[in-house]
Specification:
Distance between the termini: 49 Å
Helix content: 40-55%
Number of helices: 2
Number of strands: 0
Radius of gyration: 21 Å
Order of helices and strands: HH
Strand content: under 5%
Length: 84
């Protein structure tokens, strides 16, 4: 689906299933094995998926940053910690 990102390690660890109830019949090729990538419904699905992946990776980064800040705060000696 052409997701361009530098998050190769992260995206290789993500799996998903998308259940489409209607709207992609016109986008599926005659062989029923692939899609017409130029079809507007397929393009809409791809944009939605890329947006969802961006949101997921951003959330994971935020959580990782928060956890490393907490770990760093707890690992400092008590004399260097700021109270307040």
């Amino acid at each position: 689906m052409g997701y361009q990102t530098a998050e190769y390690q992260r995206t290789r660890q993500i799996t998903a299933e998308i259940f489409v109830r209607a709207g992609l019949d016109g986008a599926i090729n005659i062989d029923r094995e692939s899609f017409n990538y130029a079809h507007p419904h397929y393009q809409y699905l791809v944009k939605w998926l890329h947006s969802a992946l961006r949101q997921l990776t951003n959330r994971q980064k935020e959580n990782w940053e928060r956890s490393t800040v907490k770990e760093a705060a707890h690992s400092r000696p008590a004399s260097s910690r700021k109270d307040g």
